[in-house]
Specification:
The chain is α/β, with parallel strands linked by helices. Helices cover 43% and strands 14% of the residues. The chain has helices at 16-27, 43-57, 71-84, 93-109, 149-159, 199-208, 230-241, 259-272, 288-297, 313-319, 332-335, 348-360, 362-379, 382-396; strands spanning 31-36, 61-66, 116-120, 135-139, 164-167, 180-182, 217-221, 247-253, 278-283, 300-303, 324-326, 342-344. The strands form 2 sheets. The protein has a 6-stranded parallel β-sheet, covered by helices on one side. The two termini are 34 Å apart.
Length: 399
């Protein structure tokens, strides 16, 4: 069951729900189609699972289609995504042909009629070649600041055929002759990952994960990936450990079928060998309650990637009233108000310094945590995201 809009009155800023009802009157009866590459996995899919029913409840005919691909297409799409984010990925002419072929096949199979069509990320971007009516938007969740040139040249020819592009941050965008909009990601405060939990719910989950609660817990929730810098977080923990008896929990998605993830996890195990206070946890897919429970028992949350998209995990932790120590990568520094809701750091030493300060000052932890939750309430809840989408529909379709 998806919560109805009225359920958000208790968590969203005052007047938000009434504003959404009034705004919906301007777009009622319009149709809004989302097209993505996946239905599960990642913050985008997670929020869409909630946004689409909410839009329908407001009288917008919202639909969500997912493209069908092959293993070969999935591999090509991953390379293209990495290349667009700056990695040096070899992409052959045959791979580009696979991309075009799968997009063409999906364009013929999907029902693409809608007043507004939003195509998410690079994988289905080529569908625009077969557009009919309506206003078409390309929603990019990636950081395109420094893409591999050949990959961006290939994708750009499709992007130019959209009516507008939507990015998460201005720094993520490339120069384009079409209009650009900024819509930041959000969290759903009533979803299993972010809803309130009782001690009776949290305790058994944390116990099952094998984490004693007898010491302060430092937590990073992130995939086991070099970009997430788990070894740097481990280094910061060791610097703190010289002064405070604490635990470190590094929790990430399973690394099955991910050679790089397996390598990183193996390196972490070797580096942490002999330290019973370091817990490396492979979470199952859609581990919403586990993440919720971990963030609630954590004393301080760390998000210290070298490269990141928006990094909405920061807002998830802040919503639980936790100060977050994060890097300046991606959208993390946009979410953290430095020295108010947490700290933005640029090194393991800087992270350790801030962690030590917080552990020495429990009152600051409480004060920053309260400010962090309020900051998320005002800026990063799904109700704001819904308002942004209704505004796009009103401005681009109903004008």
């Amino acid at each position: 069951m998806n919560p109805v809009l009225d359920d958000y009155r208790e968590v969203a800023p005052k007047g938000t729900v009434d504003f959404l009802y009034r705004m919906s009157e301007l777009v009622k009866g319009r149709s809004f189609l989302h097209v993505t590459a996946v239905r599960y996995g990642g913050g985008m899919a997670e929020v869409l699972r909630r946004l689409v029913p909410m839009m329908n409840a407001l009288g917008v005919e919202a639909r969500w289609e997912v493209i069908a691909g092959t293993q070969e297409f999935t591999a090509v799409a991953k390379r293209l995504t990495n290349a667009l984010q700056g990695r040096d990925e070899p992409i052959t002419a045959d791979m580009y042909h696979t991309y075009v072929e799968i997009n063409e096949r999906n364009a013929k199979a999907l029902k693409l009629d809608a007043d507004m069509v939003m195509i998410h990320d690079p994988q289905p971007a080529g569908i625009v070649e077969h557009r009919a009516g309506g206003c078409w938007l390309w929603r990019c969740h990636l950081d395109l600041a420094q893409p591999q040139r050949r990959a961006w040249t290939f994708l750009r020819r499709y992007v130019l055929k959209y009516d507008a592009a939507v990015f998460s941050l201005s720094g993520f965008a490339q120069r384009l002759p079409i209009p650009k909009f900024l819509i930041q990601p959000s969290i759903d405060p009533l979803s299993p990952k972010n809803r309130e939990m009782t001690r009776g719910e949290i305790g058994p989950i944390v116990d099952r994960l094998g984490i004693p609660r007898t010491k302060p817990i430092l937590l990073q929730v992130a995939r086991f990936d070099r970009f997430m810098d788990p070894l740097g977080v481990l280094q910061a923990y060791r610097l703190v450990k010289k002064h405070h008896d604490c635990r470190l929990v590094l929790a990430g998605a399973g690394v099955m079928h991910d050679p790089e993830g397996e390598t990183v996890l193996s390196e972490l195990r070797e580096a942490a060998e002999g330290d019973p206070d370091v817990h490396l946890i492979q979470l199952p897919p859609e581990a919403d309650l586990e993440i919720n429970a971990l963030q609630r028992v954590a004393t301080v949350v760390i998000q210290k990637p070298i490269k990141e998209g928006f990094g909405v995990t920061v807002s998830e932790a802040m919503w639980k009233g936790k100060p977050v120590i994060g890097s300046a990568a991606g959208g993390i520094s946009v979410q953290i108000m430095d020295e108010v809701t947490g700290y933005v750091v640029r090194s393991a030493e800087g992270a350790a310094f801030r962690i030590r300060y917080l552990l020495n000052n429990p009152g600051v932890i409480h004060r920053m945590g309260a400010a962090a939750r309020e900051h998320v309430r005002r800026n990063f809840l799904i109700t704001r995201h819904l308002s942004d989408y209704l505004t796009l529909l009103n401005v681009l379709v109903c004008r």
